[in-house]
Design goal:
By secondary structure, the protein is an all-alpha fold. The chain has 22 helices and no strands. The protein is 77% helix and 0% strand. It is found in: Cytoplasm.
């Protein structure tokens, strides 16, 4: 059962009320702090006064119904569900939570982190994490597991991969002594594999993705199997086992097409584009990138990213007219974005090729040196850091500036060594 102090604490932080504001005229600030941290048991009169000020009750008559609604909502919290379906269920639960003292409150609040990430509201997810941090020491073992899991997912999506891995490993530690259902544990293995992939630890990523895939196959989860095959494809591509990569991408694509999941189809098409670009086959890379843009359901920020990838392939294949076309397309999509900051790296990439085509070489050099390369290093995007360091080095070399060319070839070489150490 959720402790009354934890209940009060969560409701207070949700309403952005300070300890002083809630305690004034009822109890001392220090006594309220003790109540919230379960260091004392208040009498019923104090509980009623605190709840009245928060406009909440201690009625638990609807708790069984709330639990059922929560479990159903957790089941549909997935990329395959519509945003409208998830929101409708969320609103129904929230109305009941606001009127009742429920044992399901903490788990519901933790699952909001996942929900906010699914609807691409990282700001709300971040605020929820900050709110719940105050109550972490009161979480049950199962609540701690989901807390680490969804915190890890948030860190992953804001590209803090090392912190994400730390949180996932905390969740994994819990599974050693506390058994969860196989679907939940498979999801954790899948998330760990994705994070290892981002950290370029391909062998560990392959091991975790393979374990997740095996578990998903037993559950006949086509969607999750498709995602696991996609991660395996990425990892095999990283270590240049292209045949294995293509095999996994195509298996994932078949599964995604079977269930008509356009998000996974788009993702695998994009990754096949990366693969063929890595092999130096620009024609095939362009073919797959265009398939992504031809998907009417692709989000605007993906269009910006893929436009930048297309420009790179067209430019290095000497198709300059097509490169210019997609520079204009990508920049127009970028300026249409409501939240531009997370995708500014693609603006820099598009601008860099624009300056090269216009022979505005001083602008090109300054953009890479002052903006693009520092941002890529900050984001730990080692692959693109190497690509654009080498692009800058080749530019200097073609202009007989061998001193600066040597510097940026060295930068690329050092980053290769760094990735090898990782």
């Amino acid at each position: 059962m959720i402790a009354i102090g934890t209940y009060i604490k969560i409701q207070r932080t949700k309403q952005k009320m300070t300890l002083g504001e809630l305690s004034e005229g009822i109890v001392s600030l220090s006594y309220l702090s003790k109540i919230e941290n379960q260091k004392t048991e208040p009498n019923e009169d104090i509980i009623k006064k605190l709840c009245d000020r928060l406009c909440i009750t201690t009625d638990q008559s609807q708790d069984e119904k709330i639990g059922e609604l929560c479990r159903n909502w957790y089941e549909i919290l997935d990329e395959s569900s519509s945003e409208q379906e998830m929101e409708a269920a969320y609103r129904d639960i929230q109305v009941m939570m606001d009127k009742n003292y429920s044992n399901h409150l903490i788990m519901f609040e933790i699952h909001k982190i996942k929900y906010f990430l699914l609807i691409d509201r990282k700001d709300l997810a971040s605020n929820k994490i900050k709110q719940l941090k105050e109550a972490v020491n009161t979480f049950s073992i199962e609540e701690q597991y989901y807390w680490y899991l969804y915190n890890g997912r948030y860190s992953f999506l804001v590209k803090n991969y090392y912190h994400s891995m730390y949180l996932y490993k905390r969740a994994e530690k819990i599974t050693e002594s506390y058994r969860l259902n196989e679907k939940i544990e498979a999801d954790l293995k899948y998330f760990i594999s994705m994070t290892y992939s981002k950290l370029r630890n391909s062998l560990e990523a392959i091991e975790y993705a393979s374990e997740a895939l095996e578990m998903y196959m037993k559950q006949y989860s086509f969607l999750r199997c498709a995602r696991a095959h996609n991660v395996l494809g990425i990892c095999y591509c990283h270590i240049k086992l292209y045949d294995k990569a293509i095999k996994n991408f195509k298996l994932g694509l078949q599964l995604a097409e079977t269930i008509n999941n356009k998000i996974v189809i788009q993702t695998i098409h994009q990754n096949l584009g990366y693969l063929y670009a890595s092999k130096g086959d620009s024609t095939k890379a362009i073919e797959y990138y265009k398939k992504v843009l031809n998907n009417s359901d692709v989000t605007a920020h993906i269009k910006v990213e893929v436009a930048a990838l297309l420009v790179r392939e067209y430019y290095h294949s000497n198709y300059y007219d097509e490169a210019e076309e997609y520079i204009d397309y990508g920049l127009s999509k970028f300026y249409d974005l409501k939240d531009k900051q997370p995708y500014i790296v693609y603006k820099y990439i598009l601008r860099s090729y624009s300056y090269l085509l216009e022979e505005r070489f001083n602008y090109f050099e300054q953009l890479l040196i002052n903006d693009l390369l520092p941002l890529l290093k900050q984001q730990k995007d080692y692959g693109n850091y190497i690509l654009y360091s080498e692009l800058l080095a080749k530019h200097y070399e073609s202009n007989s500036n061998y001193k600066d060319a040597t510097q940026y070839y060295r930068e690329a070489s050092q980053m290769y060594k760094h990735i090898a150490q990782l």
